[in-house]
Amino acid sequence: MPGRALVFLGFMGAGKSSAARDVAAVLGTHALDTDRLLEEQLGHSIETEFDRRGEGAFRAREEALCVELLERAGAGDVIALGGGAVLSERTREALARHVAVLLEVDAETAWQRASGKGRPLARDPEAFARRHGERGALYRSVADAVLPAADRRVARRALPHLRRLPEGVRLLWAHAASAEYPVLIGERALEADPWPAPGGRFVVTDEAVGPLHGARLGAAAVSIAIPPGETHKTLATVAQVSSALVSAGATRGDHIVALGGGVVGDVAGFCAATYQRGVPVVQVPTTLVAQVDSAYGGKTGVDLPEGKNYVGAYHQPAGVLVDVGFLRTLPAAELAAGRAEVIKTALIAGGDLWSAVGAGRFEDEDIIRECARTKLAVVAADERDGGRRQVLNLGHTVGHAIETVTGYARLRHG
Predict the structure, then answer these.
(1) Which phi and psi (to 5°) does residue 32 adopt?
(2) Which domains does the chain have, with CATH numbers?
(3) 113 pLDDT more than 80
């Protein structure tokens, strides 16, 4: 079987053709655009085909072309599919062996880009918006990678990760005002190539997680373990970890790996933000709370007796690697705490995620990916908590107060 092609998909106006051409230029090849190829076959525009023969006839011709193209495509090929191509089951089946890259665009931006450009399905704004909403879940269900379409060059920057995406692993591309980074989700996520940060790996973990999962990060990694639990999320622990980094020879050319739950992620992230005035951190979350929420967005910090997370910094990770298999080692109480975070995120997101959680799904890979995608979208709009991001604090005002007055020892965060 030939290798995997890169296939761009998404709604009208997402920039699939532009992204495919940009990536093909980097690879030294030519992009194949199914809309353009179909117009060559027809001898006239897609708009004319719609007007003469209707959408049904067009979709049949489109399906035949897409299936043929995808069946013969291989490594090094770059393809841009038409916006409705994945409505075809046969096309989706042919797409399955390739790397499907979704360029995710909001309805307003898509309309601005597509209307008045001779697109037969971009004439009525209400029908356009309805179709956009209807297709979103389908696009995400077939996508191996989801990139924001707002930036025309994002596919070029994500290309090293797209080309080597392990089988069964999904990629989300996180973007905020200060940084962007890959989020890899799947049981082979720790096989990331390239690894998200350069230099030596200095692993910060806790005394419970380290023995279970530390070996997954390679024999060359240096490991620093802290006691587990929120009561150890303190400035004293930060000082201990920082001194251990010095003793182990960590330099500004190295990076920290946070292997653990929310406490480890916050402590390691804050150490990374402050050690030698800042080194990269790769988050490897092992709890449900961390995998659906705390590993993303760049908030780091520790607690004071006077209040939770009162000392910290914004420090976006260099990458987040999510192995959902880690959840099999979680105690029941930790899993329950994480489910509370899933419910919170689903309540914020609404739609398909809320329906899935309402049906009793909490920690499968699709749910974790959709929770991460929801948080990343909020952070992209408001990195520094000045507006929209405050919605993520739903329940936290009372929750943080309870944690503080009980000394961070009685109840879990969830």
Answers:
(1) -105, 125
(2) 6-165 (3.40.50.300), 189-405 (3.40.50.1970)
(3) yes
